[in-house]
Specification:
Layout (H helix, E strand, L loop, with lengths): L23 H11 L3 E4 L1 H11 L15 E4 H7 L16 E6 L3 H6 L2 H26 L5 H11 L1 H13 L9 H18 L4 H4 L6 H8 L5 H7 L56 H9 L5 H15 L3 H14 L4 H22 L11 H10 L7 H17 L2 E4 L1 H6 L7 E3 L3 H16 L7 H36 L7 H21 L2 E2 H9 L11 H6 L2 H12 L4 E2 L3 H14 L2 H32 L9 H16 L1 H31 L1 H8 L1 H23 L7 H20 L1 H21 L1 H32 L2 E2 L4 H33 L1 H15 L3 H8 L5 H30 L22 H5 L7 H19 L3 H30 L10 E7 L3 E7 L8 E8 L2 E8 L11 H15 L3 E2 H7 L5 E5 L2 E5 L7 E5 L5 E2 L2 E4 L9 E2 H4 L8 H7 L32
């Protein structure tokens, strides 16, 4: 709770006088005046109470809910002493106590009294909500049925998100059941509602109407009355802190040049309209400068700066001119009016250039002009500040628009024997560079010092400019890419293939827009994950000509001159090898029946042997034998090529895992959950036996193993063990020993949290991310140098000659550099590519160092021979890893190797599928992790006033929104609107709403004037539930177009990797009141009173019978067919999907193949699970 309970760091905003710092006794007195059950205890004692009262193990768990706790007094006295609970001797304690953490004296001395009391007001308010709801439960007014009714009133999707958020942030107490979840949700929600309502959309973004939740919680408690009753006297009123752009105290110069005594002042409109007196000058020079100005002499520094500004303005560098003039104003503030005239003139020129570059109306005065002036005012505060860099990015975009770019390519002229000129125009480069610089400015926008109005105006300008430039880039290059694909034979024959090719082209254009160029690897990978595939080689002549990827690589280098980067010779050779291995029946046979199973078996066993020898130390164990290689190879051969064998192995692994889980976890958990076992474990004799017997005995045994016992008689050993047991018992159960145990346990838990398994996994992810970022940085550097060596209009012939010669040398350098980085180094530092191929290759090649050195020794000296041999031996494993990784991507290029059925597709910019976007995991969970960082950043921003991180996380979420929007457009809208059976007109993605574990997509149909169709993709209890949340215009689609809409939605759900379909569940269970998802399957409530609860366990078998969970015997519910319910098991073969969209076939109705799936909502809809 410390994460959301804090003080506002800006006292005085309420106009109240700051009170002297409070003491702990004064705080407790103020709180007891409101509730006599409050006690301030040491945080360590509070954590001990939570651990023991909730039966948590100290070792390995971080204490949840560490900022407040309420429990029965007699139970607390069993855990802690009276003095630890701040109970005076002889004091008659209340039946229940509210424990709050005592303040840190240093923190208390720094904070204003009103803010401290407001902080504890929040804690007490939160604890009182807990107590109120627990009292209702104890009184029987909030039983399981009533609780379930509340959950369905608020929405199961809200509670699924609440469970994720509260677990992540350490609020949820065990046993984390529905009652605990509802109580904690109510406490956190109402605390935020009354103390920081601006945080509610960050914590529960899936909620659309908070008023509905207010009404539902009002049935159980009067929050307003609790809010008033818990306010201590002197506490300042809650002050929500929305993003305080106008008061950003953090917004000082990035290099720390601002005066700490006076926080940086964020500009507003009135600051930049010519009020030169508001610009501070240099205190040391101002008096002399003022005397010089009054006497008619202009200071030399002012004249020099103004002269430099005039020269910069004449050559078109308006940004430098503006910055120099503003610097001159700071030197001589009294002459600000003279400088400000030049600033206004330069600003007008910059505005005019931007209007021309971004196709804006020059007659309409731009609203963002003052924002540019505000940026200029802030830019001189630091050396090469973010504001200055943003202005220069905008000016570079203008220069890109105004100057024609040419290639100065001497190498291409030589290789083409003079057919291609050295100086070639690159008409698309201007827009690409504009896009690069506008996107760079957009990335800088979150960190510059601007007020909210100016930030919004600049954001709109950049968004408009990027959109305009991106449209020009796409319209310029899209026809060229389509033409090349037609020339090389990548021609679609069916509607799904036409949609796939359109997606392929748009993905290539995405790379061009975002990065400025596209490579052969990008083109190959785009085809590999696309549904448009290459045909097998039918003739030897086709094989000699090269596959379509190689021919397209050659043509795209000409059609997209300056944008497409042709593959290096080793990439082309490798693609030719891949076409032989993967694009012919003989090659595929050798790969599938020989290379993959038996070479894979050898590599796997060699890696295992390496691990046993070098890591485990079992050098005598031999697993790399030819018999084992042959046996494992045969196993892999069957696993790769026989589907029934794969299924049998999978079912066997699942059965083994279930048996192990049943034996190791489920059975002990079932035994421990028995009521008599719980009574026995919680009984006083059991607790005393644990405290005074079991725990000291375990520590005594550990000490006995460590201590030396040589030449110790049995009698003395027994006495020594008894003595150790007595000392350990005494230490553990004394006050000092107990405190030491708690401190040590917390240190171990905190150490494991920081340096344990999760940080190790984070470190591994960091290594992979750093490796990727380093490669991208190298590529950006090489690209920047390439751009620098291009000829621009206005430059001299001498510059052209120098750039041509320099470009030839740079061409050779980049060839070697890219080979070394991409082929040799990166596979060895990237853990994903390193294991096991590179590891085994190192094991194979290292013994040849001496042999290779002997061969080289005859041609060079011994040291140089050793060095060359060593470099070759450490380079070859990287090349092996590169080959395997690249060939893996080439397998899916050919139609014969495509996935047999529809499968999930990448959506996010980093290749995340829908499941990886929503499900938290080692390398997944983009949205849960991003929202968690956003919550932390906004909590910190409300404390410090620094909103930089908040804006960056919101920017990242915007990119996810854009990725989801493109996915829906390319996978669903393109397919549906391209079908001749669709007669309802075009569709538009109106809104993409992101939440912690859900994505809602709103689609509008302009021709059908009704509300939007809202599709929901939600993670519930580990299941990906999809479906229509609100039908909108889908209810008015003509009957002849409904099958096409349903089939397109099925395809979209398949590309999302959905597990369950909302409308299908409702169709299979039409008479139930409500349902929800649990890890085992689907829980339904047949009756409106929610008294009966029934479980459908998904892994039960082909037919799932209803299992009674709670309540009286219900009316008989039907058994469900698992394959009809679990659409994640639905297999739609590609050939069947293609046939589905061929509406011209006579005498058949292809839509009937999917007619059993209930995709569109029934009318009227049943009362079922909602996602409010």
């Amino acid at each position: 709770m410390t994460r959301i309970t804090g003080h506002d760091p800006r006292p005085g905003m309420l106009g109240e006088e700051a009170l002297p710092p409070l003491t702990e006794a004064a705080i407790e007195q103020a709180l007891r005046a409101r509730d006599p059950r409050v006690r301030l205890v040491l945080p360590r004692i509070l954590r001990r109470v939570i651990l023991e009262d909730r039966d948590l193990t100290t070792w390995g768990i971080r204490v949840p809910h560490r900022k407040s706790y309420a429990a029965d007094t007699h139970r607390l006295l069993e855990i802690a002493a009276r003095e630890e609970l701040c109970l005076a001797p002889g004091e008659r304690a209340p039946s229940r106590l509210i424990l709050l953490p005592a303040p840190n004296p240093e923190w208390l001395a720094r904070q204003p009294a009103g803010d401290v009391l407001r902080y504890y007001w929040r804690l007490l308010f939160h604890a009182r909500i807990h107590m109120t709801l627990e009292e209702r439960v104890a009184a029987g007014r909030l039983d399981a049925a009533e609780l379930r009714r509340r959950i369905h009133t608020i929405g199961p999707a809200v509670f699924a998100e609440a469970r994720e958020v509260l677990s992540q942030d350490g609020f949820l107490l065990p046993p984390a059941d529905e009652r605990e979840l509802y109580t904690e949700f109510a406490a956190v929600y109402l605390e935020l509602r009354y103390f920081a309502p601006g945080l509610l959309p960050r914590y529960f973004p899936v909620v659309e109407r908070f008023e509905a939740i207010d009404a539902a919680l009002a049935e159980d408690l009067d929050a307003q009355e609790l809010f008033t009753a818990t306010r201590p006297q002197g506490a300042t009123p809650p002050l929500d802190s929305p993003e305080p752009e106008a008061d950003d105290a953090w917004a000082i110069a990035e290099n720390g040049e601002a005066d700490e005594a006076s926080p940086a002042r964020t500009p507003c409109a009135g600051d930049v309209t010519g009020d030169e007196g508001s610009l501070p000058g240099s205190a040391g020079e101002q008096p002399s400068a003022e005397r010089d100005a009054k006497s008619g002499r202009v200071p030399w520094r002012f004249r020099r700066l103004m002269a430099r500004a005039d020269r910069a303005s004449r050559v078109g560098n308006q940004v430098r001119a503006i910055l120099l003039r503003l610097k001159a104003v700071r030197v001589v503030p009294i002459l600000a009016s003279q400088a400000w005239q030049g600033v206004q003139a330069d600003l007008d020129r910059l505005v005019s250039r931007l209007q021309s570059a971004l196709d804006l109306d020059p007659q309409q005065p731009p609203a963002w002009r003052e924002a540019l002036a505000a940026l200029g005012r802030e830019a001189p505060r630091g050396t090469w500040s973010a504001e200055a860099r943003l202005l220069y990015d905008l000016q570079k975009a203008c220069v890109d628009h105004e100057r024609q770019i040419h290639a100065s390519d001497l190498v291409e002229w030589v290789l083409s024997l003079g057919r291609r000129p050295i100086k070639r125009p690159l008409p698309g480069q201007s827009d690409i560079l504009m896009s690069t610089h506008l996107r760079s400015a957009q990335r800088r926008l979150p960190v510059v010092r601007l007020c909210a109005l100016h930030r919004r105006e600049l954001a709109q300008l950049l968004r408009h400019g990027i959109q305009r430039v991106e449209e020009r880039i796409r319209s310029r290059f899209r026809p060229e890419v389509h033409r090349v694909l037609d020339e090389v034979g990548l021609v679609p024959a069916t509607l799904p293939e036409r949609v796939a090719r359109q997606k392929l082209v748009e993905e290539l254009l995405d790379r061009i827009v975002e990065r400025g160029y596209v490579t052969m690897g990008d083109f190959r990978d785009a085809i590999s994950r696309n549904n448009l595939k290459l045909a097998d080689f039918a003739r030897l002549a086709d094989l000699l000509r090269g596959d379509p990827v190689l021919r397209a690589d050659q043509r795209l280098a000409t059609a997209l001159d300056g944008v497409y980067r042709r593959g290096e010779f080793y990439l082309r050779w490798m693609q030719q090898l891949a076409s032989l291995a993967f694009g012919t029946q003989v090659g595929r046979g050798l790969v599938r029946f020989a290379a993959l199973p038996f070479v894979g078996a050898f590599v796997a066993l060699a890696f295992l042997q390496h691990a046993l020898d070098d890591w485990v130390g079992l050098e005598g164990v031999r697993v790399k034998t030819w018999e084992l290689v042959a046996g494992l190879g045969l196993f892999l051969l069957c696993l790769i090529n026989i589907r029934a064998f794969r299924q049998a192995v999978w079912h066997g692994l699942k059965a083994g895992f279930r048996s192990l889980r049943l034996l190791m976890f489920d059975l002990p958990r079932w035994i421990l959950a028995r009521r008599w076992v719980q009574w026995l474990l919680r009984s006083r004799p059991a607790r005393l036996a644990t405290r005074y017997g079991i725990k000291p005995a375990v520590l005594t045994a550990l000490a006995w193993v460590v201590l030396p016992r040589k030449d110790v008689s049995p009698e003395l050993s027994l006495g020594l063990a008894a003595g150790i047991f007595a000392v350990v018992n005494l230490l553990l159960n004394s006050r000092m020993g107990r405190n030491a145990e708690e401190i040590l346990a917390e240190a171990v838990v905190e150490g494991w949290r920081r340096f344990g398994w999760r940080p190790l996994m984070t470190l591994l992810s960091l290594v992979m991310e750093v490796s990727k970022l380093a490669l991208e940085a190298v590529e950006r550097f090489l690209y920047a140098v390439d751009e620098l060596l291009r000829f621009r209009s206005g430059e001299s012939n001498l510059t052209l000659a120098l750039k041509a010669v320099g470009g030839a040398g740079w061409f050779l350098a980049t060839y070697v550099f890219r080979f070394a980085i991409n082929v040799v180094i990166e596979p060895q530092i990237n853990p994903i590519k390193h294991f096991p191929v590179v590891t085994v290759a190192h094991k194979v090649f290292l013994p040849f160092v001496a042999v290779l050195q002997g061969w080289l020794a005859s041609a060079m000296n011994e040291f140089l021979a050793w060095l060359v041999a060593f470099l070759i031996s450490v380079s070859l494993p990287g090349i092996c890893g590169f080959l395997v990784w690249e060939l893996k991507e080439s397998w899916r290029l050919y139609a014969a190797n495509r996935r047999r059925c529809l499968a999930p597709v990448p959506i996010g910019s980093h290749g995340e599928t829908m499941s990886r976007l929503l499900r938290r995991g080692f390398h997944s969970g983009t949205l849960p992790k991003r929202f968690a960082r956003l919550r932390r950043a906004e909590r910190a921003a409300r404390q410090t006033g620094n909103w930089k991180r908040v804006r960056q996380h919101l920017h990242a979420l915007h990119h996810v929104e854009e990725a989801v929007r493109r996915w829906v457009q390319r996978e669903f809208i393109a397919l549906l609107t391209g079908c001749g059976m669709w007669r309802a007109g075009p569709l538009v993605v109106d809104e993409v709403r992101l939440a912690t574990g859900a994505i809602h997509v709103g689609l509008t149909c302009p021709r059908l004037r009704s509300g939007p169709l809202v599709l929901a993709f939600e993670v519930r209890a580990g299941w990906l539930l999809v479906g229509i949340l609100r039908p909108g215009w889908a209810s008015h689609v003509p009957a002849e177009s409904q099958p096409a809409l349903a089939a397109a939605l099925v395809g979209l759900y398949q590309s999302a990797g959905a597990d369950l379909l909302r409308q299908q569940i409702e169709a299979e269970l039409p008479t139930v009141t409500a349902y929800d998802l649990v890890p085992e399957g689907i829980v339904v409530w047949p009756d409106p009173d929610f008294q009966r609860e029934v479980l459908y366990e998904m892994d039960y078998g082909p037919w799932i019978p209803p299992q009674q969970v709670r309540g009286p015997r219900p009316r008989r519910l039907p058994a469900l067919e698992r394959e009809r319910l679990w659409i994640g098991r639905l297999q739609i073969p590609w050939h069947r999907w293609v046939t589905l969209w061929e509406e011209d076939l006579p005498g058949r109705r292809p839509w009937e193949d999917l007619s059993w799936i209930q995709v569109l909502p029934s009318s009227p809809p049943p009362l079922v699970s909602s996602s409010r």
